[in-house]
Amino acid sequence: MRAAAARFAVSASSAIKLMARVRATGSVAPARYGGHRRPVLAPHEGVLRVLVAEQPDITLREIQTELRRRCGVSVCLATIHVTLRRLGLRFKKRP
């Protein structure tokens, strides 16, 4: 493998890893990269809808506390914000 790496002007490490991939998968094709991740709060969307329906002016911090209390899930405020926007539950200020 080291001789082949020198012949094709690649590092020995690259040649060794490529051969390991060929042995494991039978192909030189790269592995899948990335992909879709399900939203963390997807199983708790019903709870979010109920919280906002019961208390339309609830804050993100209060939602975070309720999710921890009711569902045992601890997420950051940004995750809650993104989930609420995805569900169409945005807070509109009235003049």
Descriptive account of the structure:
This protein is mainly α and 95 residues long. It has five helices and no strands. The radius of gyration is 25 Å and the shape is rod-shaped.
Number of strand segments: 0
Low-confidence sequence ranges: none
What number of structural domains do the residues give?
A: 2
Total count of helical runs of at least 4 residues = 5
What is the average of the pLDDT values?
Answer: 90
Instruction: State the end-to-end CA separation.
Output: 72 Å
| Main sheet attributes: strand count, strand direction, barrel closure | none
Helix fraction, binned, reads 40-55%
Q: Write down the Rg.
A: 25 Å
Percent of residues in beta strands: under 5%
Structural class: mainly alpha
Ordered list of secondary-structure elements with their pairings:
Elements: H1 2-7, H2 12-25, H3 45-54, H4 60-71, H5 77-86
Give a brief outline of the structure.
This protein is an all-alpha fold. The protein has 5 helices and no strands. It folds into 2 domains: 1-33, no CATH class; 42-86.
What would the keywords be for this entry?
95 residues; mainly alpha; 2 domains; 5 helices
